[in-house]
Amino acid sequence: MFKKTTEEKVLRDPVHGYIHVDLQVVWDVINSSWFQRLRRIRQLGGAYVVYHCAEHSRFGHSLGVYELVRRMVSEVQDISNALNEREKVTAMLAGLLHDIGHGPYSHAFEGVTKTSHEEFTCRIIEENTEITRILEDCCEGLSKDVADVIRHESSNPLLSQLISSQLDADRFDYLLRDAYFTGTKYGEYDLERILRTMRVHDGKQLVIKESGVYAVENYIMARYHMYWQVYYHPVARSYETVLHLLFKRLKDLGYENADEHVISLFEPIISGKKISLDAYFQLDETSCGYGFHLLTKHPDPIVSDLAIRIRDRILFEYQDSQPNENRKIRNTLKKNGYDLHYYWAKDEVAQSPYVPYSGSGTGSIWVRMKDGSTKELSNASNIVYSLIHGPEKDDNKVYFPKVE
Ligand code: NI
User: Fold this and answer.
1) pLDDT tens digits for 14-70?
2) Phi then psi for 75, rounded to 5 degrees?
């Protein structure tokens, strides 16, 4: 029922070997301008200033998630049996498109504009864009079905579990991919073993066989280590902090004293109005990089200084947040003429390796025991039990420019 490509397309991928495409609609989405735009958005925001090869894009990650969903719905027998043809294609497309709404430097951008990439993802799929037309030309109602999976509103909950739960194609891909491109080994785990032990319970709940628990424990530890070694690396957070402050300064200045070229590019940040998809499309990390370059010559000394810091990686110092120490630093900064609105920031992060939710929602990992009963993971694994009953790890830092 779904049109095939004339021959199977295979794309080389360092994580999965090959990405296989034989559906015309998938190929058309990949070739759309919105999807190609993901080449211009880095997967890891500021982490590349720490791990110099972490320049990989959301384009590669999105293809990787698609490939994993494709394998799950075709190679994992239980999943394949539980879904019809249309549901399988919907899940693959949801995997492919789950990050389509990411903007440049997501963290800093979303913080200043008070938007979320999830919101843009659904708009790009449903608001009559090139993507909407490709999906609707393939099959009426497909764009809403795909967006529903991403919103967790699909009539079949299994579809959302494949894309986003605690054990999903998104996490499977980004851990391996980010580990590969940062050169860290923490993110590695036994993906093939997890796929082999995946089952479907009652036709709608993804579970793991009891014999797969060790592989899942390993995956949870991989995720925990990646958070603290890569995603929450204090220097990457310094870069994102300076970016956030630059965006904030631009927004506070409004339209005063800025040249037209820069204004039109950064309009979505400056105006504070609802961002049109056209304006959003223009703003990627390539165009922002050029914009920052122009901003280094901006008449406002704060804007030009922060832009130079971003361009040339002159980042902020940091230390653990402690009231007395904080006060001292703030006084020194003030004495040196720094405006604390743009030269002082707190950044607090916390992360739990695994948080089970009550009930049978998509938030928990379920294990099928040998006797056929199901248990939530922390009741089937001593390691996970200890992890969730220990204290949550957090890290509260303050960021500020180096003062001589
Ligand atoms: Ni993702």
Assistant:
1) 999 999 999 999 999 999 999 999 999 999 998 999 999 999 999 999 999 999 999
2) -100, -25
- The β-bridge partners of 252 are none
Q: How far is the CA of 11 from the centre of ligand 1 (A)?
A: 19
Task: Give residue 97 CA to ligand 1 midpoint distance, Å.
Answer: 9
Which amino acid appears at position 162 of this protein? L
Say how many residues make up the chain: 404
Nearest to 44 by CA among 187, 186, 236, 229: 236
Angle at 225 between CA 221 and CA 230, to 5 degrees: 150
- Between CA 171 and CA 177 the distance in angstroms is 10
Amino acid at 241: T
Handedness of CA 114, 152, 69, 282 (dihedral sign): negative
344 HSE (CA, 13 A, CB side) = 17
pLDDT band of 357, cuts 50, 70, 90: low
What secondary structure letter does DSSP report for 129? S
pLDDT at 263 over 80: no
The rounded distance, in Å, linking the Cα atoms of 22 and 17 is 16
Question: Distance, CA 39 to ligand 1 centroid (Å)?
Answer: 14
Whole-number Å distance, alpha carbon 170 to ligand 1 midpoint, is 5
**342 CA → ligand 1 middle, Å:** 31
- Is there a contact between 269 and 113 (Cβ–Cβ < 8 Å)? yes
**Tokens 């900064």 found at:** 333
Instruction: Provide the pLDDT confidence category of residue 267 given band limits of 50, 70 and 90.
Output: confident
Burial class (CB in 10 A: 0-12, 13-18, 19+), 117: middle
Of 55, 155, 170, residue with least CA distance to 121: 170
For every residue of 252-307, DSSP letters joined together read HHTTTT--HHHHHHHHHHHH-SPPPHHHHHH-SHHHHHHHHHHHTT-SSHHHHHHH
Tokens 């500020």 correspond to what residue?
400
For ligand 1, the distance from its centroid to the CA atom of residue 263, given in whole angstroms, is 30
